[in-house]
Amino acid sequence: MTARQYVFPQEGDSLDSLAARELPEVEGAAQQLLSWNLHLAARRATGLLPSDIVFTEPPAAR
Amino acid sequence: MLDLVIRNGLIVDGSGLPGRHGDLAIKGGKVVAVGGRAGDAARVLDATGRIVAPGFIDPHTHYDAQLCFDPYAFPAIEHGVTTVVPGNCSLSLAPLRIDQRDAFSRMFRLIEEMPEAAFDAGVDWRWGEGFGAWLDALAENIALNVAPLVGHSVLRMYVMGAEAQARAATADEIRAMADLLRVCLEAGAIGLSTSFVDIDESYRPVPSRWAAPAELDALSAVLGERDAVLQIVHEFYDTELTIARVEQLAELSLRHGITTTLSPLFHSDANHKGVARVMAAVEAARARGAAVWPQVQTRPIDISFTLDQRSLMLLTMPSWWKVASLRDHAEKIAAVAAGRQALVDEMNSLARRPNGGLGAGGFVVRDVVHARNNDLIGRSIDDIARERGATHGDTVVDLALDEDLGTWFIRESIGHNNSAVVGELLAHPYVHVGASDGGAHVGSFSTFGDTGFLFSEFVRGTKSLTLEAAVKKITLDPATIWGIKGRGLLAAGNAADVVVFDAEHIGRGPEIASDDFPGDGVRWIRRQEGVDTVVVNGEITWSADDGYVEGARAGQIATRP
């Protein structure tokens, strides 16, 4: 069992900058990323925290 | 002449091996002989028909505040608990600068649900600032052993001040935290705790959540210098995030040679594959040689609450949370009356959420203020609402307003209540018993009696564990995992922490209200069932016949020689 692929934010990252780095060829990458990370969507006002896990692939179908 | 002999009991020594009949001999606070027939002693206890086991170790507690005013951590000891680990989840009372006490207190009181009056009346900060000074103060006045964690949030506050909740640390600040952690470990900390989930009273993430992975890595390296433990509270409500945290812990464990533990791991029938997937991740980490130990609590999740004070239940209802946060009681009642419809709507909306099982219809009236409402005790809001032709929210609010918000409600068996599955989980060799939260959440549920429940529900009930396996789960296993040396096993030379109990009757007792804390307010506790005697470092500290022994103060800082 391995976790879904994830990264931690880099210093100064916003969701946009992280999405642009991790999903450079995806249109609307930030929104895509947010849809895979509902824990971040639920607290958007806080922004990314340095300890946040950010999944960079969608959940597996179950 | 021996100090104490416990004669003719079935000695279940904590190793997991089958018990054997014989005597336990104690002198100078240490076990001197296990089994056989012991000689004369100043005091002899007859344990015929009883189990003689090592004192139980509770590795996930928040007794930090309670121990400042209650050396017994009442009623933990009477349940057989002789060693506790406070300082979990990134929060310890030290090291902390004097001007940070207010901010920390607000955080601790909120996260651990400790009433403000009790905290303020009981925590006198007599030790000043340092971790070692705090332990010195504790050591003077404790009836059970303490193996403390130092909190990551507190380390950040000490080094970074208000910036601890604003940004990642610089390289210099990380070095300063690492140095401070070394000082705390040297003074007697058993490890470091951190949190990935908690928020303060302003809904701001606690300081530890602002730490970049490199910071936690640097602190874990310090833990590795001393074979100390890393405890985390993770995103326990989300399986995917939990699995990712298991992998993060596995990396830290392998890189620094440390033991790591995450808590809590709950089973939910609504996500019945979740725990299995997490355990598969734990097994994969184990296969790589990593030490990652999930903590599983024995009890199901029940939450009691009023609308008068902040509680875990009200966290799901922000408008109610704001009302309960008001300091003046009359102001609260006026706020409910003024905002009534919106508050009712919010309560009714619970049933439409993904976790609709928490809807107000499932609330049960636990206790009432007025005798005229006595017939409602024990009835569900759904039942009462049907009878009255009202919505669930209206029914709750009408009753609460009729009683000046003093009505107690309970939401029972929210989760972790499938004993067959939980029993199987508890028996898993990579799981240990923890997450009691002892000393916290005092108005939401009792954190006492989890050890008794292990025997009543999972040894006698589901038969998921043998008696010997259950004893090992709460003695030698936590002692080994947490590095609590010389305890958890009845063996010559080890500390004489002992519990004598009746295997057929040990349980957790009913949950009852208690007003014993300083200040006003009620907390929920359970009194022991089936425990005869508890010995701490050779001193009888509690017995069924005599209760708590006045002046018993044999507790030690378990990490100090």
Structural description of this entry:
The complex is a heterodimer of chains A (62) and B (561). With 62 residues, chain A is mainly alpha-helical. Chain A has one domain. Chain A is built from 3 helices and 2 strands, in the order E-H-H-H-E. A two-stranded antiparallel ribbon of chain A has the order 1-2. In chain A, helix 1 packs across helix 2. With 561 residues, chain B is α/β, with parallel strands linked by helices. In chain B, the strands form 5 sheets. In chain B, strands 1, 2, 3, 4, 5, 18, 21, 22 and 23 form a 9-stranded mixed beta sheet that branches. In chain B, a hairpin with a 2-residue loop joins strand 2 and strand 3. The mean pLDDT of chain B is 95. At the A-B interface, loops of A face helix 7, helix 8 and helix 9 of B.
Give a quick set of tags describing it.
heterodimer, A: 62 residues, mainly alpha, two-stranded antiparallel sheet, 6% strand, globular, B: 561 residues, alpha/beta, 9-stranded mixed β-sheet, 6-stranded parallel β-sheet, 18 helices, 23 strands, 32% helix
Topology:
The complex is a heterodimer of chains A (62) and B (561).
Chain A: E1 6-7, H1 15-22, H2 29-36, H3 38-41, E2 54-55
Antiparallel strand pairs in A: 1-2
Helix pairs in contact in A: 1-2
Chain B: E1 2-11, E2 20-27, E3 30-34, E4 41-46, E5 51-54, E6 56-58, H1 66-69, E7 81-84, H2 101-111, H3 116-122, H4 131-139, E8 145-146, E9 149-151, H5 152-160, H6 171-187, E10 191-195, H7 213-225, E11 229-233, H8 239-256, E12 259-263, H9 274-287, E13 291-296, E14 301-305, H10 318-325, H11 329-338, H12 340-349, E15 364-367, H13 381-388, H14 392-402, E16 408-415, H15 419-427, E17 432-433, H16 450-458, H17 467-473, H18 476-482, E18 498-501, E19 511-514, E20 523-526, E21 531-536, E22 539-543, E23 547-548
Parallel strand pairs in B: 1-4, 1-5, 6-7, 7-8, 9-10, 10-11, 11-12, 12-13, 13-17
Antiparallel strand pairs in B: 1-2, 2-3, 5-18, 14-16, 15-16, 18-21, 19-20, 21-22, 22-23
Helix pairs in contact in B: 5-6, 6-7, 7-8, 8-9, 12-14, 13-14
